[in-house]
Predict the 3D structure of the following.
Amino acid sequence: LDKSDAAKAKRLAELTQQAARLGSLLARLKALAAASESPIEALFRFAGSELGETLDAEKGSTVTDHQIFNAHARFWEKAYLDDMAALGVKDPDVMTRVTEYVPQIIEFVQKIVDKGLAYKGGSGSVYLDIDAFKTQGHHYRKLSPFSGDTSAADMAEGEGELAGEAAEKKNPNDFALWKSSKPGEPAWPSPWGTGRPGWHIECSVVAGDILGANMDIHAGGSDLKFPHHDNELAQSEAYYGHHQWVNYFFHAGHLHIKGLKMSKSLKNFITIRQALQEHSARQIRLMFLMQPWDRPMNFSDQTVGAAKSKEAQFKNFFGTVKALIRSKWLDEEVGWRSREEDRALYDQIADCQSKCHHGFCDNFNTPQVVDALSSLVTYCNNYLSRPPPAAPAVYLVQKAAVYITQILKVVGVAEGADDIGFPVSSAGSEAEVEGPLDALTEFRDAVRSIARKKGPVEEILGACDAVADKVQASAPAAARLSDQVAKVLADFAGAIRAAAAGGHGAVLTACDHVRDDALTAIGVRLEDATREGQSSTWKLDDPETLMKEVAARRAEAEERAKQAKAKAAAKLQQEVDKLTAGSADPFETLKPDLQLEGGALSQADVEAWVGMQPPPKAKGKPTPEWLEASRAATEKQAPFLKKLADSSEGKLTEKAISKRLDSVLKKKEALDKQCEEYASKGGAAYLAKKKEELAAMLG
């Protein structure tokens, strides 16, 4: 980019950010206007951040009680832990609080001062002496190398508002280990006066206490490279007297919201709880796994949508494999019966395992891992969808599903990696509900098939009689979900018996109801067979997810029906308009076209012009007869047009009148056809019928 391009790019970025601020403000104002609570409650909910900043500026200096600080911290600490649990993030091995480490922090700073690597400023703050630090052979700013002095902007980033005390520093690069507290800030007594820990010091002290003088891996956001992590390294090396406090740093990319970096100033931040209201923890985790961890990551409708599609692909595959394992496949021939296809699937599994291994080894390339798993699912689905007599090698497909599940557990997408103790059977397991769900599925398939083929009602009632015994003894009494399935089966059998009297359509409606309403409410997904003779497939799933899917399908169906109705109404409106035009006298319709600047054409003029038209021209070369007829017509038209032009007192030419008459003639021909169609369809009675149909459709 040249300078002008760079300026344009900067201006575009500024405009984009301003648009984001404006969009956020408008959204908040809209939500505020729709708020149901009292105005004061709504104001605190939508403008709490701004109110807090104002109150802090006006009253913050009066708060000095550590119990208030601690209560505030405990509130947000619990909120954070709740959010981590909701996201499925594993608990740490130890949790620490900086306020409980103040004595160790003071001791840590004192040791650096004793080594001559830190000094007290005039305000009571203690700074790391960068010049003395370098004199002892250390390097400063390892993660963000530079030469010269730290800029004012960098210092403001690193020290906040207190960077204004640069005048008491020996070197502008020196940073605070201990700060003298301002009014309203937490404060503790120290050898240098009342103060508080600097921004960076707590990380070194706490990490050193738990992990020792050296750690293997340290992580954080990419914006923490400087000053935070560089300053951590410097103060830790000064304390321990070595040259490598951390072996490896992982710096994650920034989170962007719809293409813009999430920030408080842009008002485009989304809290974890807000995100979880719209998306599941699994979907959010998948979204991040599908993007490189060390580059900017985007949270948008597109990225979340892609994660939801991937989740649905995995979920449907697992359900299909479970259904395959439940089937009576052991009653048939086993082994690799389709040797080439089975061998190819085995090779695909091995290839997926290799890609996942190399992806994890390549800088935790999780997008490659997710793609490899997804590709294996697609291959397995194609393998399973082969028409008979091809039959799957069930253990081979199971091997693929187990491996995919194991990898998804590694990255936290699948649950169960940290279960304690031996597995305990639950009422929601496939084994507990297999009997009643198989009975329900077989019964529904049977009556649905009869209804679709418009078979005898007696066969439907016979199926109801056959399932009666299964209704009575389909589930153990202690199995909660099994009892629910058994109740659905009993209700469904009764509904089918009642619907049989209403005909095949009523039976099919009952079959749809049990699939879309009764079963989804208890967390059972029922997928209709795609081929005649195949059985429907049931899968256990989250009830809320299933009900949302059903609601979405119904909304889409309603929208399609609405569009189809609108299209049909528009078509009917065109027919009514055409019939209405056909019911009128053509010359009444043509009155506006007969008006001319120097007068008006009459019906007699139009009819005369009709009689002066040459015969239709045949295809090919004009015949002598047609040429003669055309000449004769022109001779008749000339004096007629002259007469009309003279009557306009020179306002219209013969050419203009001829053009208008030709246009009127063309429209009259179309109107004549409409009149003929109107009469042929029944005239006024037919038009009235169509108007009634249109009114009913629009009403």
